[in-house]
């Protein structure tokens, strides 16, 4: 899966259901992913939305997510 600022969080979670937990462990700013509000809005939310809410630049979110995915696939 290729990520950009318009990638829907729901699509990411469908492909990588383990990712929110790992992301939240990586950085406290990303714990918002597990909040009830975000879970309710997740179908429409994008990486750009997550960036705005968390204060974490979207390019850094993408880079860190890709790093987590690569590590997960190597350990699988």
Which radius of gyration do the C-alpha atoms yield?
Answer: 11 Å
Let me know the number of strands.
0
Order of helices and strands: HHHHH
How would a textbook summarize the main sheet?
none
Separation of the first and last Cα atoms: 17 Å
Given the C-alpha coordinates, what overall shape results?
globular
Report the uncertain regions: none
Number of helices: 5
Structural classification: mainly alpha
Instruction: Tell me, rounded to a whole number, the average pLDDT.
Output: 84
Helix percent reads 55-70%
Estimate nothing, just give the exact number of structural domains.
Answer: 1
Strand coverage percent: under 5%
Describe the structure.
- With 76 residues, the chain is mainly α.
- The chain has one domain.
- The protein is built from 5 helices and no strands.
- The two termini are 17 Å apart.
Provide key terms for this protein.
single chain; 76 residues; mainly alpha; 5 helices; 62% helix
Helix-strand blueprint:
Layout: H1 9-15, H2 19-26, H3 36-41, H4 47-54, H5 58-75
Question: In a nutshell, what does this entry contain?
Answer:
By secondary structure, the chain is mostly helical.
């Amino acid at each position: 899966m290729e990520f950009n600022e318009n990638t829907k969080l729901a699509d990411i979670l469908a492909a990588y259901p383990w990712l929110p937990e790992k992301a939240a462990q990586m950085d406290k700013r990303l714990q918002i992913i597990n909040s009830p509000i975000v879970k309710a809005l997740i179908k429409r939310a994008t990486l750009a939305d997550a960036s705005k809410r968390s204060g974490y630049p979207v390019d850094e979110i993408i880079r860190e997510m890709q790093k987590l995915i690569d590590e997960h696939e190597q350990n699988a």
